[in-house]
Amino acid sequence: MKYHYQKGASGKSKSGSRLKNALWIIVPCLTAGIGIYILITAFSPSFIVVPFSDEQARVEERLNSKPGIFGNRLYIPQINVDVAIVEGNDESVLDRGAWHRQPQNGNPEKGGNFVLSAHRFLMGWTPQETRAKSPFYNIGRLKVGDQLFVDYKGSRYAYKITRKYEVKPTAVEIEAKSEKAKLTLYSCTLEGAADGRDVIEAEPLGKVDKVQATEPGRLQ
Is the pTM of this model over 0.85? Predict the structure, then answer.
């Protein structure tokens, strides 16, 4: 920077110029990095279904363990779901696992309509946290005939999916009492809670003990 006794200071300082040049590089890179991180975190639940993944190995290991030693849990091997079954009076319990809705209407032990609801998508600070917070992200991948398992009060129950369908957000009848024993899973669609609910119904197959994998991803 130059100084003239009449015109005063003129010109640019080298340090100021360098700072501006650095900002022009840093800001776009930082913005791009944040965007990439958000995309990875947002779509991380879809990465749950990966052959030989840690999640898959954990589900298979737990299903090959004594029923109930990890508490009341829902296991869906096809999409690597291993989530606690929790009860409570408001939606805050969804942060701890699959919410046992209307317990008076049914459970694996007494029959009726055993209803479980869980988050479809909830972003966390890391991809791992996002996956943990979004246990039902991949329920759309499930097919009629798929089997899932529930540990409840020290016993393990097997279920087979019999029906998949969508309902409006106001369709409270999916939680209604049922003379026929069934398991009902539901969560909001990937479009959000205002769009509707994806529902899966499964029929009980009875109690089972350890569930062994005959090959990766296949349980019997």
Answer: no
